[in-house]
Amino acid sequence: MVEKIETVLKHGKGFISFVVAGDPNFDKSADYIVALAEAGADVVEIGIAFSDPSADGETIMKADLRAAAAGSTTTKVFELVEKVRQRTQVPLVFLTYTNTVFTYGYEAFLAKMKQYEVQGIIMPDLPLEEQAEFVALAEKYQRSFIQLVTLKSGKRIPDIVKHASGFVYVVSSLGITGTRQNLSADAYDLITQINQLTDVPTAVGFGVSHPDQVSQFSNAQAVIVGSAIVKIIAAHPFDAEQYLQTFVKGMKAVW
Amino acid sequence: MVEKIETVLKHGKGFISFVVAGDPNFDKSADYIVALAEAGADVVEIGIAFSDPSADGETIMKADLRAAAAGSTTTKVFELVEKVRQRTQVPLVFLTYTNTVFTYGYEAFLAKMKQYEVQGIIMPDLPLEEQAEFVALAEKYQRSFIQLVTLKSGKRIPDIVKHASGFVYVVSSLGITGTRQNLSADAYDLITQINQLTDVPTAVGFGVSHPDQVSQFSNAQAVIVGSAIVKIIAAHPFDAEQYLQTFVKGMKAVW
Amino acid sequence: GYYGEYGGQFIPELLMPAVSAVADAFNHYKDDAAFKDELKDLFDNYANRPSLLYHAKNMSKDLGGAQIYFKREDLNHTGAHKINNVLGQALIAQRMGKTRLIAETGAGQHGVATATAAALFGMEAEIFMGKEDTDRQALNVYRMELLGAKVHVVDTGTMVLKDAVNATFQEWTKRIDDTFYVLGSAVGPYPFPEMVKYFQSIISEEAREQFLSQTGKLPDAVIAAVGGGSNAIGAFSKFISDRDVALIGVEAAGKGIHTTQTAATITNGSQGIFHGMKSKFLQSPDGQIDPVYSISAGLDYPGIGPEHAYLSDIKRAQYVPITDDEAVQAFEYIARTEGIIAAIESSHAVAYAMKIAPNMKPDQQIMVNLSGRGDKDVAAIARYKGVEINE
Amino acid sequence: GYYGEYGGQFIPELLMPAVSAVADAFNHYKDDAAFKDELKDLFDNYANRPSLLYHAKNMSKDLGGAQIYFKREDLNHTGAHKINNVLGQALIAQRMGKTRLIAETGAGQHGVATATAAALFGMEAEIFMGKEDTDRQALNVYRMELLGAKVHVVDTGTMVLKDAVNATFQEWTKRIDDTFYVLGSAVGPYPFPEMVKYFQSIISEEAREQFLSQTGKLPDAVIAAVGGGSNAIGAFSKFISDRDVALIGVEAAGKGIHTTQTAATITNGSQGIFHGMKSKFLQSPDGQIDPVYSISAGLDYPGIGPEHAYLSDIKRAQYVPITDDEAVQAFEYIARTEGIIAAIESSHAVAYAMKIAPNMKPDQQIMVNLSGRGDKDVAAIARYKGVEINE
Prior knowledge:
The complex is a heterotetramer, with two copies of chain A and two copies of chain C. Chain A has twelve helices and nine strands. By secondary structure, chain A is α/β, with parallel strands linked by helices. Chain A has a single domain, classed as TIM Barrel (Alpha-Beta Barrel), CATH 3.20.20. In chain A, strands 5-4-3-2-1-9-8-7-6 form a nine-stranded parallel β-sheet. The longest helix of chain A is centred in the N-terminal third of the chain and has 14 residues, at about 25-40. Chain C has helices at about 15-30, 35-45, 55-65, 80-95, 110-120, 130-135, 140-145, 160-175, 190-200, 200-215, 230-235, 265-270, 305-315, 325-340, 345-355, 380-385, and strands at about 1-5, 5-10, 55, 65-70, 100-105, 125-130, 150-155, 180, 220-225, 245-255, 270-275, 275-280, 315-325, 365-370. Chain C has a six-stranded mixed β-sheet with strand order 3-4-14-9-10-13, with helices on both faces. A four-stranded antiparallel β-sheet of chain C has the order 1-2-12-11. In chain C, helix 4 crosses helix 5 (about 110-120). Chain C is globular and about 55 Å long. The N and C termini of chain C lie far apart (about 45 Å). Chains in contact: A-C, B-D, C-D. The interface of A and C includes residues 50, 57, 171 and 176 of A. Chains A, B: Keywords: Amino-acid biosynthesis, Aromatic amino acid biosynthesis, Lyase, Tryptophan biosynthesis.
């Protein structure tokens, strides 16, 4: 039985890792998701490759291209999840552009998520203004629609977190995904503000890559690491397991 | 003593030949003018090379380029004439664009013509409307300003021939200088018309190249052959004498 | 922000405040008298408006049917309708206190227009252009640089227009405070499709008056080429409520709608969510956006503005495909017949007019929106015809 | 046919009847109401006249002196002042019953304009262009062909503009009855300089009214580039009797007036008779016409229209040289400052305005005739600046 995301993360010091489904191929993707879970990842985000990943930086764009070359389709991503579920009970979250879900059909997609026990979904191009239909369906299928809050969200934050489920994805810097050396201290204050508004755990992401960064977000329930993990896979496409485990353990040790 | 052009041509069956001064060089030019005179040319036209011979066809344009390459200047052309005059008493006529004469100075140019006994001058771009100043000076220096009449001149003909001197240059076809196979029968009628208006001899030119053409112009006092002679020089730049003489004698035999 | 079920604001949360601020500014200024006066001054005294409504008498006579009129957007400063939108958005940006314009561009026309406006307004400009396009249109890159703009080469994805749009949105998320994204077509999240329509509507506003004053009646049909659809929505807009005026958008069929070398979105596309909007797109069953093709760089886009998708659904406008071959023939035809070298984009619209005019009566009238001039296309047409041009 | 001692008809007898017939037709139609109405219709509804008088505020402010205005001939259909003259001459040709237009062209602008008019009037067009120019401007050759014209490559002489003029006159002598020579500049035998002035005078006719209505007074100076001098004579014409308006023609100094790489005819030239007119020319002491040079193909001509020679002699107009370097700087300057890519010809005039404006007062006004758009020049400017452009 897979635990709810909220339950896993409420203890704090959570670690959420990200991979692109099919990078470098679908068999290795499954192995890496399992390896991350075994190394201590509390939640694994599974990215679905898109032709035009406009919210992503170069690292994840390239992973999308590798996944596309491996023949990624929505159906293959569900097959991957089905296999992963036979090997680990780690909570899973999809990260996908809206068009992938829309063309599949919102409800059909959520039904598959339920079937394969994918707990949540992040759609970076489905903001508050456009999400009502999907959120209602997600509730129907008991899937978490993950809300994003950014340093620019300002007075929009109360409305956004009102609909929060799973965790609140706190975007810690301006810009797109990718590793950065300097993260804004403003993010700390943003997390505090969100914690005051909701009981849903906060997870901070976008640019987290070094162990010494995570301590800056002691007020968050989790950190999200994407590009740094994708880079490890890019560097060691067919034997990344030990590097991933070393990285996750190193992050968790200081966290 | 050089005879007047009118005197030479009044016997009929006159032959006027043309060379470009300095084609292929100034020494050979002198030889060729003398050779033409000795072969029976009644008048020799000496062309002065111009950078933009817009009234001339390709054959004469190329001769102008050869003359330019030989260093043609107005001064060198006068030097040529001075040398030619020591070897032949054939009447000479310049054919030159107006700018050459204008930049030298109309009066200075005519004075040189008189000095070296050049009897006349043809300036294809100095029509009736623009020639008054020059014609008055030409009369002062007793040089013939050769008038041109074309198949298009129509009602302009009486005014043009009123100022005729030396000969009337009858342009036998439309277009520029160059050899043509078919000459218009209209030219015959044009010559008749001019003969009725003036006692100045008529000479027909532009496109005359074959012996069998000259008989078409039995009503003219002379024929003018330009391009055909220039082509002989182009084909035999350094030993054209005998070819020129053969050509001239052939033309005169049927004429 | 919706046209029927199309439109919306499908963009990252990070951009929502910026886009909302643009929407607020647009909704304020579009009815602001001082703003409208300044815009009119820019239109009249810089863009060279009003543009002519030209009666193509030779063509009308030759085709033997309807009277054909060209709305001559090609006579605008910079040579296309693009300047209308760019001046409007730059003026909004100035009112919002922005000092830097960013824009995507395909072949370079919108980039040149944006760089032009930035020069006029004394703003910075940075233009994003796919590497395929900077290679093909090096001269337009230099033209933008002459106008003082910085050109960024986009080497991600398929390295063409859609990737340039992606990159410009990304750039905007990185630097929002002083920066305004001047979107070039009637696409993207609200308010862009509405704002672009507002600025391009000057085309039909003028044309409607010109038809009434020059001919005493409205046209029977208005024909415009559709890529994203900005010139078409501008040409249609003020005629939409004139139900007797047929509105016809002409899509680029490329090598044919039964091939993959096409950009005919309404004809071959399906509903999707991309570039901030719900509309129709050429895409795989999985929602992966297709690479598309047309001889016309300006029509070579996998989507279409949301209002066009709506006008098609409700059958207020009709969308038809025209192939490369047909467009090139029309390009050559009006050059020879009217002495007008029109953009290959606009030539798609001309090609469709050539199809329908002969079946109409001489007292009927067609307006073709000549959205731009074709000097930019002459080299490509020569290549298409197999003529060697050594430049 | 004379302006002081300049002008005349120095052409072969064979052409005199044809040229006289043109003179008769011109003198008849220039005062014919129906002709003038039709010309006005062509100007307004085809050439896109009146052209804007544009206040270059950014430039005026930046230079800190006189107010600078651009007369925007670049906004005409086909992108330059050339169309004014071509439409006028084609209309005369039509009235004379001619069915075939011939014309010389240098870089191709006048050839394109003539081909355009021929397409509009349903006439044949044959354009003569030097081989050097057809090689350098292959795209313009194709453009003329698209417009239905036949292009003849002139491989005689120096194979540039002056040789093309020679060849066109030659062609005319061969086929006079159905053919009209549309001369492109204010040069050649009478009536061409006068006729070209007549048709180009629309520039100053409009500008004079525009200055009075927009600013309440006339300009203090009118500046125009001079090659043959058609745009300049058009810009000067209606101001000649306004003695307080300084008239300034800007010649192409090329690499400098102390080099042989120049085309500054008034500055360096002398009296001569060429191309049917008495005027000033760059020539040897012997009267051999010089090869000339300018970065601007439109100013790269060894003579100047006879009226300019006269206006210079009587000091009613002043003629000044501007080098390639100065013109390129001005080209770049107004692109960045006003968002206008002007022809390199016109940029010579802009360059001189940049020299004198700072020394004038803010209540003084300069008109610069922007005779054409500069899209055609972008590649050459890039080369000049050493920028690699792969087309």
